[in-house]
Amino acid sequence: DGASWTAPLVVRDIPGENPYTDVKFLPSNDLSVVAWHRKRPVGEAYDIWLAKQVGSASWTTEQVTDDANDDKRVRIGVYSDDNVILTFPRHNPAGPTGNKEIAVATLSGTTWDIQLLTTNDKNDHRPAIAIDNSDKAHIAYAGWVGSGKGDPVDIHWNLFYTNDTSGSWSAPINLSTTLSLPAKADWPAIAVDDSGEVHIVCAAGVGATREVYHITNETGSWTATQISDATDPPCEWAVLAMEGDGTCLLYTSDAADE
C-alpha cells in the first residue's frame, strides 16, 4: 500500500542468539510472535525462545525449552485465541549420532508441554506448521527412511504429513511414497486455505533434477504437481503463503541461494 518498511527492531540483544527464526503476525489481534533457538553459554545444546508483542505494548520473552536436548529451527503456529504452538526437531546429544525427532510445544497454564510426534530414532527434521480455520494444526516435515542415521545431503529424505484435526496427532503419512516423489524431498512449507484444504510445497530430487513440487488434498485425495522444470536452476527450498481464495504465493531459492 505504499507504506515504508520500519527500522529494524532488536527484540533480543544477547550473544549466542541464532538467526534461525520464525515470525507470525495476526492483524486481527495485532499480535506479533517471534521464535528462535539460542545456544547455551556452556555446552553445545540449543534451547527454544519466544517473544510476543500485542499492539504497541512492550515485547515479552520467555524460554520454552531448558533441558539437555538440542532444539533448533523452530516454527510457529498461532491459534485464534493467541495461544502458540511450536514445532522443531529435537536432538538428544547423549543419544545416537544424527538422532532427531519432530517435537511440538504447547502452553498449559504457565508450563510448556513437549510432545514427540516421531520416535523412530532416525533423523527427522525441518518441520513446517499451519493452523486452519478450526484451530487445528497441520505439520509437514522431512523424515529419514534410510537404514542409517543419514545427514542433510543424503537422498533418503521423504516428505511426511500429520495433523491433530481429530483431537490427537494422526499417524504420519509418507507423501513421498504415496505420490512417488523423487528422493530427498525436504524443506517443506505448508498452508491451509479457507476451505480446509492443505497445500504443501517442497524441493525434491538431487543435483540438476532437484525441483519444487506443490502437494495438496483439495480434490479429496493427495496429488502432486511439479512447479519448476529442467530449464530452471535446481531448487533448494520454498516459502509458501496462502490467500483466502486458495491462491498460492510461492518463493523459491536455487542452489546458489538466488
Please name the defining characteristics of this protein.
258 residues, four-stranded antiparallel sheet, mainly beta, 2% helix, 48% strand
How would you summarize what this structure contains?
The chain contains one helix and 19 strands.
Structure description:
The structure is a single chain. The protein is mainly beta. The strands form five sheets. Strands 5, 6, 7, 8 and 9 form a five-stranded antiparallel β-sheet that branches. It has a four-stranded antiparallel β-sheet with strand order 1-2-3-4, with no helix packed on it. A four-stranded antiparallel β-sheet has the order 10-11-12-13. A hairpin with a 5-residue loop joins strand 14 and strand 15. The longest helix is centred in the last third of the chain and has 5 residues. The protein starts with 16 loop residues before the first strand and ends with a strand. The model has no long low-confidence stretch (mean pLDDT 82).
